[in-house]
Amino acid sequence: MRWVNKRIRRGNSILLGAIPIAILALVYLAAAASRHAANPNDKILPLPSKMAEAMAALVFEPDRMSGKFLFWADTFASLERLGLGLGISTLSALLVGLVLGALPPVRATFGPLVTGIAVIPPIALLPILFIVFGLGEAAKVALIVVGIAPYMVRDVAAHVGSLPREQIIKAQTLGAGSWQVILRVMLPQAMPRLIQSVRLSLGPAWVFLISAEAIASDIGLGYRIFLVRRYLSMEIILPYVAWIALLAVAMDFILVRSSRRLFPWAHGAGH
Amino acid sequence: MSAILSLRDVWVEYGDKIVLENVRLDIAEGSFVSIIGPSGAGKSSLLRVILGQEAPTRGTILLDGEPLSPECGPDRGVVFQRYSVFPHLSVIRNMLFGLECEQAPFAARLFGAKRRAAVEAAEEMLEAVGLGASKNLYPAEMSGGMQQRLAIAQALITKPRILLLDEPFGALDPGIKADMHALITKLWRDYSLTVIMVTHDIKEAFSLGTRVLTLDKRRHDPHAPHRFGATAVYDIALNKPAPEPQDNEKSDSITIDTKDNN
User: Quick check: B184 pLDDT over 50?
Assistant: First the structure.
């Protein structure tokens, strides 16, 4: 059978997907073991036992200085920033994208501005954000918003603009005005695309979050990683990176599931 | 019978390309007008100006004696070949859409007694087109023929003065097409509709219509073919009574595919 026609059953696909991850883990263990054989104090590739020990201190024991459980405090601080940034971006993408896509006069007026903002590298704006918002939470959230909102706005606007003309005409022959077309035809059909857009923006959002935390922060996952880098603490950096990956995968999974549940019509006939 | 729709010297031009020239038509109330003609003869352009999707370059269009504004409105219903129903709404909600827009300008949704009345009207119309059992399906779960039934029912629920059909059965297979012919004939008779249908199928044009218009160019300049537009070269009135609906129940069994035939 040709490879393009092969069907993979669900059980097999989980197994197949696990193989490369397992191989990667084994390669890491082998490399770490060989380095430790040469130098028992190696810091570059720590053994799992070392990672567990270092992480246990952050997860289960309060920090002596601040009295916080650092791992959890970092996680909540980062998730709060990320959530705020994603929330503001999503809401503005929905409102602005919908209006831009639906109303040609608005598109003609503000389309070039949005395109112009979208091509500015967000990190180049970070100094401006620090000057305007200070070094607090607002600047970090603003960086995420500046980073991902223009892309999401344009994506939603393009999707709304490319809805079949027949649908818009049909709605009008059924008595709908601009408001009703936007509310009943465009908004519902923009929603699954918006969720798709959030999913694709999760990656960049994390990048901007970690960048902002690395540059000016006193708590957060990105802050911790860049802090312990000074001591070559790979036993903390690696679990933190894995934790970030896990959080990102979980968010993506929740978005996919909620899209399927809320908008079954957008995911094929098989629902 | 009085003219419900009049086209007075209508020209449609795109740049220096003339698509329709000097179209003069009076369409009587209750007639079923089929429009045929070769590809590029402006059939769809004619339908679009009547629909209000675009304005004629010159000339006026009168509906019930009033000039039409170049915008679509609830007085003219339409069924396209594709994309005529809303994919994000179930069948019953597709049907309610027109009533909700009419009665709820702000919320575009109905509640309580008004909603119950609307649902009742929608269900009655769905029964009339044979979709009574499918009211909770989404369009993607229905065959092409069922989607077109829904599109027709949806267009009729707001009681348009004229129903415009743009190759509505072009994408359907022959068995389904025969069903749809019977359905549209029945609806045309039962609801005393005025129908204008653009089609490629000459047999369909003559079997359904009470009047057949053929659009084509009267003159042709081989050096500048775009400089002459099409107009109604034949206008054939078929003096026939409203056709009896054929019994097409059997053709349900011919249909093998229940999926989208588009």
Answer: yes
Specify whether the CB–CB gap between B93 and A184 falls below 8 A: no
- Partners of A171 on chain B (C-beta within 8 Å) are 86, 97, 101
**How confident is the prediction for chain B on average, in pLDDT?**
83
Distance CA A126, CA A32 (A): 38
CA-based nearest residue in chain A for residue B157:
A174
Domain A48-264 part of CATH 1.10.3720.10: yes
Mutation site, A174, A180, A186, A189, interface B, largest B CB count within 10 A: A174
Q: Which of residues 60-79 of A touch B (CB under 8 A)?
A: none
Percent of chain B with pLDDT over 90: 11
**Rounded CA gap, B255 and B258, in Å?**
7
Is B144 in CB contact (< 8 Å) with chain A? no
Question: Could you say which DSSP state residue B136 is in?
Answer: T
Cβ–Cβ below 8 Å for B98 and A174? yes
List average pLDDT for each run of 10 residues in chain A, which is 271 residues long. Answer: 89 92 96 93 91 91 88 95 96 94 94 91 89 90 93 94 92 91 93 94 94 90 93 93 95 94 79 41
Identity of the amino acid at A169: I
Number of helices (H) and strands (E), helices first, in chain B? 6, 10
Q: Does A21 touch chain B (CB under 8 A)?
A: no
pLDDT exceeds 90 at position B114? no
Enter the pTM of the model. Answer: 0.84
CB contact under 8 A, B101 and A171: yes
d(CA B142, CA A34): 62
Q: What residues contact B180, with CB distance under 8 A and at least 6 apart?
A: B145, B148, B149, B168, B169, B172
Tell me which chain A residues have a C-beta less than 8 angstroms from the C-beta of B73: 172-173, 175
Exposed / middle / buried, residue B32 (Cβ in 10 Å: 0-12, 13-18, 19+): buried
Contact of B138 with chain A, judged by CB distance below 8 Å, is answered with yes
pLDDT of residue B260 exceeding 80, the answer is no
CATH code given to domain B3-252 = 3.40.50.300
Record: contact B72-A164, CB cut-off 8 A: no
Three-class SS state of A195 = helix
For chain B, the structural domain boundaries read: 3-252
Stretch 167-206 of chain A: residues touching chain B, C-beta under 8 Å: 167, 169-177, 179-180, 183-185, 188-189
Q: Do A173 and B53 touch (CB under 8 A)?
A: no
- Residue linked to tokens 């201190």: A57
Using the beta-carbon criterion (under 8 Å), do A174 and B51 form an inter-chain contact?
Answer: no
> In chain A, which residue ranges form alpha helices assigned H by DSSP?
10-38, 48-60, 70-102, 104-118, 122-133, 137-161, 165-173, 178-180, 187-215, 221-228, 234-262
Per-residue model confidence as pLDDT tens digits over B35-81? 998 887 888 888 888 988 888 888 888 888 888 888 888 889 999 98
- The ipTM assigned to this model is 0.83
